[in-house]
Amino acid sequence: MTTAIDSAAVWPDDAEEVEEGVVSNWFVREGGHVEAGETVCEIQIEKVSVDVPAPESGTLVERTVGENEEFRRGDVLGRIETES
Amino acid sequence: MAKTESDPGTAGADRELTMSRAMVDAIASEMHADEEVFYMGEDVQDYGGIFDSTQGLLEEFDRDRVMDVPISETAYVGAAVGAAQAGMRPIAEIMFTDFVGVCLDQVYNQMAKNTYMSGSAVNVPMVLTTAVGGTYNDAAQHSQTLYGLFAHLPGMKVVVPSTAYDAKGLMHAAVRDDDPVVYMFHKRLMGIGWMPAPEGPKTPVPEDDYTIPIGEADVKREGSDVTVVTLGLHVHRALEAADELSGDVDVEVVDLQSLVPMDTQTVVESVEKTGRLVVVDEDYQSYGVTGEVTARVAERTPDALEAVERVAVPDVPIPYSRPLENEVNPQVGDVVEAVESVT
Amino acid sequence: MVGVNKLREMYEQMVTAREYEQRLQEAYLEGKEPAFDISAGPIPGELHLAAGHEASAAGVCAHLRVEDTVTAPHRPHHIAIAKGVDLDRMTAEIFGRETGLCKGKGGHMHLFDPDVNFACSGIIAQGCPPAVGAAMAADKRNEDAVAVAFLGEGAVDQGAFLESLNLAAVQNLPVVFVVEDNDWAISMPQPRITDVKTTAQRADGFDMPGIRVDHDDAIAVYEAAGDAIGRARDGNGPTLLDVQVHRRMGHFMGDPQTYRPEDDQERAKRHDSIERLAEDLREHGVDDDELAEIRDRAEQHVADAIEWAREQPEPDPEAAHEDVFVDEPTAASGGDD
Fold first, then answer.
1. What pLDDT, in 10s, does the model give residues B130-155?
2. Range of the domain at B90
3. Do chains C and A touch (3 or more CB pairs under 8 A)?
4. Pick the catalytic residue: B32, B142, B152, B236?
5. Which of B21, B237, C71, C86 is the most exposed place for a label (fewest CB within 10 A)?
């Protein structure tokens, strides 16, 4: 089963009025293993960088938003195929 | 040059890190392993380093191990010298390499010379980290690399990582070294949000510790027609140039990684293979890296060397305006031109 | 209150230091006359002698242990002696011999004796930051060791000193800064180059105590140093000691002192901290015979050290390439890797 990496879940409190961000770095390749809680990518909202943790352990099957691509708050950033 | 035993290779590493995260990974690991390792610099606590050199360390360590210091480079770099001579392993950061001027005495007259002047009665096991380089319009006093300055003055080892993998391996080596090591990290390669890195420095990085021996160069791209010797940011510009020339000229890219000691042997072997040398450096041309590499090759293997071209920042202060800075900082096109001129 | 045994120790150190500087002066001038040639003779180069400064070193080092770190400036011999540096090997180093403290590589301005945690440096005030660093190490390791940085009054305008005061204060480090004020920064009298009336006042700007000790009084130095070092050991931070001394000789050997008024030189010679301490010892019941015995022992100690040093071999020229790095005994110069 796949779990979505949700951008809204990690939105910083002091960027309430901002609706767009950029994925500045992915740290795992498609097909790579991730542990729950491990930083899987970094997003940039205006001047603030936020580390995005993997919500579950499993395989990163899709980088839905690519590096240096923009997304809107609430967009899915990527998908993880979980173990169970 | 083949990767050595201490280097487990990147095979199997699922995670890719930016150069800054790889550097911090190594620092954190060394600090966990040895209480005597500590980091000090300006804005390294809550800010995590202006160029992300200590990002996240404060979450793992107390403020007495990750120390913010006053804007007093002479005092705190000198304090690092004193603490190192007492047996600790401090890592002291000069925020911009350009600032070494304000504490140069502690660096070149104390840190670098105390081992020699004492006949090895004392040694100075410290790391001096510093951010180098331009490409973002920070002008003459904030854009330098000064590779030649540090390499020229005797008594300090100098390393310049160009990728995340190299950054971690060289940091482990630097901290464990019993001599002073100047660790020069390029701002543009760190993977900072507000200064995006080009393709290349973000690489797979193994979880476990590994060292890259100081004094070894790394052939980043094998080729048979021309040897391009370079370091730091320009490893990536050279690789881009090599891709552009692919099919016409087969370019070998040698990443020096260490300036002191320099791996002359790897450079010489490459030139004996290709006969043609291009040296690319983001430091001033005269009396620096390009002259040094050329001279060493000429001394060791004059018959093999058919042609040489130096590509460096000309002997001018780095200008502010974008077209002016791009003129002085070697671009991919400049490397391509230099390669073409020797073939 | 200082006990008579401690006073005896200090007296012996001071007499040894004075004798040492005088004998070194003679050795230094060998081969350099009639026309002064700085590179000639058994002790070439510069030599900065501390005749007249002895009380400052003796009074401060009386409170120090082997594990306490001392950094000293280019006028270091009296401090080295008071800290317990090996006199034979120090002398051999000054004579540039292979068996010197630094294998002949440092010379008189760069003496390192890690056995007693002593080092000196030839760049004005640059011994201050490393002393702060040694204090930082003691602090991090929760040891009650302290560090002492000695410097001259001419050094107090150097950034390294001022920065060190601030860093020591803001981090509450166990370091004491001892300024030996002999009025002269080579040829520049202090009032010409520094605005505050006393160096001790500088401490106010850095939120630390500043204590001025008047000329020639070794016991006064001892007492002030005891307070300062005790404060540091107890975790109460740094202190600045401003000790008045006399420079009995020129700044360096060869200095004709034409800039210095005759009466200033005379006054320096008339006021002698060693004579004064002898008086103090007599008041404590020590008789002249014993004082003479101490002086004889000091003279012998110095003579032996110099004789030993003169017999030591010169270094092998090839050794010049070694000791750049610890793990590579031969230096990587000119591309040898």
1. 999 999 999 999 999 999 999 999 99
2. 16-204
3. no
4. B142
5. C86
